[in-house]
Write a structure and sequence with these properties.
Largest sheet: 3 strands, antiparallel
Number of strands: 3
Strand content: under 5%
Shape: globular
Number of helices: 14
CATH topology of the largest domain: hpI Integrase, Chain A
CATH superfamily of the largest domain: Intergrase catalytic core
Length: about 300
């Protein structure tokens, strides 16, 4: 088992580019799984049944582990057995049909299109920092990138001639995301009329710089976003991911294909993207009330 585990972790490191912390998380969860199998006199991974996997999952729940933690363990086990199957170390994946515990998903807070419009109008784009802030906000809303992806974004990834940006996301994975005319205009304005005055020899190719010519920190970017949200008077609870959540929600409300949004967000699993399909329930209910023949008020 230990030999297969090391081979599996090596495979994840090479094929997915996972961080050491993530690999250690896989190791921890699978070691716990192996201990359970050994307690039940199972030393051959090819003889593990779905009943044994279910037994391990229920043992975690009985110990009081949260559904999120149990689901993480099951995900690691599924991935491990899938690897064994693909490498011909096993004839089946006994974890494939095991359901994860039900998890109450918290819907992310979002801003309405009108609220986003107000925020985007706040920066005073007549000075260097104002142009930068305008570009940051337009870029975030136009592309839906993570804050970390914005901070590490380089000028070489800005491709206005094809209306795309090249993003390096989690696991060093590359994706191309569309950027619209307003986003392009704001970034070009910043590049031509602001960044040259902020840049220093040490700035390298980083797109968005602080006043000292260095890469913005996560806290620095959050302070910029929060400042303009406060200026609008919006009272909603807002986090650094709020604009990303709003980007996804507004696209889906407008009729965008779920898989296209998944690709833009850089989600490995479409189930992660599906959470946004639940956000606009009230919008859908209102549409039903307004347009269904049996619901329309009689004139």
């Amino acid at each position: 088992m230990q030999k297969r585990l090391e081979e599996f972790l090596h495979h994840l490191r090479l094929s997915r580019g996972l961080s050491q912390n993530t690999l250690e998380s896989y190791r921890f969860d699978l070691q716990k799984y192996f201990e359970y199998l050994k307690q039940h006199k199972l030393s051959d991974l090819n003889s593990v049944t779905s009943e044994k996997v279910s037994g391990f999952i229920y043992s975690l729940l009985r110990k009081g582990l949260k559904p999120t933690s149990v689901s993480r363990h099951l995900s690691a086990i599924r991935t491990f057995h899938k690897y064994l199957l693909n490498e011909d170390y096993s004839n089946s994946n006994p974890a494939e049909t095991i359901d994860s515990p039900k998890i109450g998903k918290r819907l992310p807070y979002t801003l309405t299109p009108d609220e986003m419009k107000k925020i985007l109008e706040q920066p005073f784009a007549e000075n260097d920092l104002g142009k930068r802030d305008k570009a940051i906000l337009e870029f975030l809303y136009a592309t839906g990138v993570r804050i970390s992806e914005l901070l590490n974004f380089k000028r070489e990834g800005f491709l206005p001639e094809v209306s795309l940006v090249r993003i390096i996301g989690k696991g060093n994975k590359e994706r191309f995301v569309p950027i619209g005319k307003k986003g392009i205009k704001a970034v070009r304005d910043y590049l031509n009329n602001s960044r040259p005055y902020l840049a220093k020899p040490s700035s390298e190719d980083i797109m968005f710089l602080n006043r000292r010519g260095k890469k913005l920190s996560r806290m620095g970017a959050w302070k910029i976003i929060k400042r303009y949200i406060l200026l609008t008077g919006i009272k909603k609870r807002v986090t650094p991911h709020t604009i990303r959540h709003s980007f996804a929600t507004h696209l889906l409300e407008g009729g965008a294909d779920l898989r296209a949004v998944q690709e833009m967000l850089g989600h490995a699993d479409i189930s992660t993207t599906q959470i946004y399909t639940h956000i606009d329930r009230e919008f859908i209910k209102q549409e039903h009330r307004d347009h269904h023949p049996r619901e329309k008020p009689h004139k």
